[in-house]
Design goal:
- By secondary structure, this protein is an all-alpha fold.
- The chain folds into 2 domains: 74 residues, Tetracycline Repressor, domain 2 (Orthogonal Bundle); 118 residues, Tetracycline Repressor, domain 2 (Orthogonal Bundle).
- The chain has 10 helices and no strands.
- Helix 2 packs across helix 7 and helix 5 packs parallel to helix 8.
- It is elongated.
- The N terminus is likely disordered.
């Protein structure tokens, strides 16, 4: 976990206390493991994380002020960032992004995200922070690719970026198991989307 992630305002380590990367990793893994269980967010507490990670509660509180901050950091760690594509063409950019997102379906803690989304009504503040800190930066990468496509004349100028974004993400984030998706699914998503929004498209 990066220095930035573990030292957000209110969650930084105390001056003079040596940082333990091993403890950080254990805490994050324990949080994700608990989130992936049937109880989801409700099953995550500082006490439960500390017990599973084999650390004291004070070790967690020195890094995170509360369980919501810990959960968001854990999700950010598991989700990672979307790399900005090179901008050669909108098709190449969307293909790179689609393949990256499709590959994330095989990650160990993929179920965590569905459990958090499913708990949005019960934990609205947590979900809002998750969207702001984890999801929106990733969406911004896709928005930028679509807007570059419009600016370069590859996409129709009247394309609604938010609608195209929702179609793209919705297709790739569906809960269908990967082994039930057809071969070349990311490529098919991009081809189908561009059929509708490309300049001179059908």
């Amino acid at each position: 976990m990066s220095e930035t992630t573990t030292q957000r305002p209110g969650g930084g380590r105390s001056p003079g206390r040596p940082r333990s990367e091993r403890a950080d990793k254990a805490i994050i893994e324990a949080t994700l493991d608990l989130l992936a269980e049937e109880s989801g967010v409700a099953g995550v507490s500082i006490e439960a994380v500390a017990a599973r990670a084999g650390v004291g509660k004070t070790t967690i509180y020195r890094r995170w002020p509360n369980k919501e901050a810990l959960i968001v950091d854990a999700l950010a760690s598991a989700k990672g960032t979307l790399e900005t594509p090179p901008g050669e063409s909108v098709r190449a950019d969307l293909l790179a992004l689609a393949r990256a997102m499709h590959g994330e379906r095989h990650r160990k803690h993929a179920k965590c995200f569905w459990n958090v989304v499913g708990s949005a009504e019960k934990y609205p503040e947590l979900y809002a922070r998750y969207r702001q800190d984890v999801i929106e930066p990733r969406r911004d990468v896709i928005r930028a690719a679509l807007r570059r496509g419009i600016d370069k004349g590859e996409l129709r100028p009247e394309v609604d970026v938010e609608v195209a974004l929702a179609m793209f993400i919705g297709s790739l984030n569906q809960k269908t198991p990967s082994d039930q998706l057809p071969p070349g699914f990311p490529e098919a998503v991009v081809a189908t989307l561009l059929d509708g929004i490309a300049a001179g498209g059908h």
